Amino acid sequence: MEIVFEVNRYNPETEEGNFYQEFSFPVDHGELEELTVLESLIKLKEEKDGSLTFRHSCGHGSCGSCAMLINGENRLACKTHLIDLVSENETRIKVSPLPGFPVIKDLVVELESFFDQDEEVKPYLIAENGSETEEERLQTPEELGQIQEATECIMCGACTSACPTYWDNKKYLGPGAFVKAFRWERDSRDEGGEERMDFLDDSRGGVWGCNKVFNCEEACPKDIDTVGIIDLLKREALGF
Asked: What's the structural domain count of the chain?
């Protein structure tokens, strides 16, 4: 089978703008089941065009760096297999950068604003009066269970990139930042709830901007209930 990749190309040093370049290569059935989109892109870079630019690191769905738009859906390239994208009648795969973020080159987007918004919600343990201790800050398995799902977030940006509210309002913190806020807001050892709520309850960038489109949940590679988490933060903002 001949697989055709349509890959977004953009070079800021030229005046061409964005365009799609086609690459093709043959695969047998065994390769089709084993090959991922990331492995295919690496193959294209090594064998077809060394200037092709994209991010990747662990290759195992843990770092989130290879998040991109694949056939119209935000996915991790390292966890998306060709067998799930093609058939006898459809052998084309379209790969684009994550929407909602400025494109730096080809499939690489600028994520500085995404990480800045994460920092706004203070994604770290805030102890009483900033006190330090040499002792472990323990919690029970039940307490950990309340935040376990949120700790699965790998900060790939796929959820925020898929959010229509974020597309329209770049001051909106976005589902990625809300999941991180929840992870610490509900941590039994943390005492920084009031500080975070100043950002979470904000009318312009806070949780009230969520319209429950559920794009974020569909995009999340870790199947985190982002909308449910945002609803819990809304209830907390109202004092429930």
From this structure: 2
Using 50, 70 and 90 to split pLDDT, how confident is the model at 135?
A: confident
Q: Are residues 103 and 109 in contact, defined by beta-carbon separation less than 8 angstroms?
A: yes
pLDDT at 134: 78
Residues 21 and 61 in one domain: yes
With vertex at residue 28, the alpha carbon angle to CA 49 and CA 37, rounded to the nearest 5 degrees, is 45
Beta strands in the chain (DSSP E): 2-9, 19-26, 67-70, 73-76, 92-96, 103-105, 108-109
pLDDT digits (tens, 9 = 90+) for 21-47: 999 999 988 888 999 999 999 999 999
pLDDT band at 130 (very low <50, low <70, confident <90, very high): low
Give the domain extent around 47: 2-109
What is the reported pTM?
Answer: 0.92
Choosing from 76, 94, 109, the residue where a domain stops is 109
Classify residue 240 as exposed, middle or buried by CB count within 10 Å of its CB (0-12, 13-18, 19+). exposed
Question: Taken in order 149, 154, 158, 164, is the CA torsion positive or negative?
Answer: positive
Domain boundary among 109, 135, 151: 109
Q: Is 20 left (phi over 0), alpha (psi -120 to 50) or beta?
A: beta
Q: Is the domain of 59 the same as that of 15?
A: yes
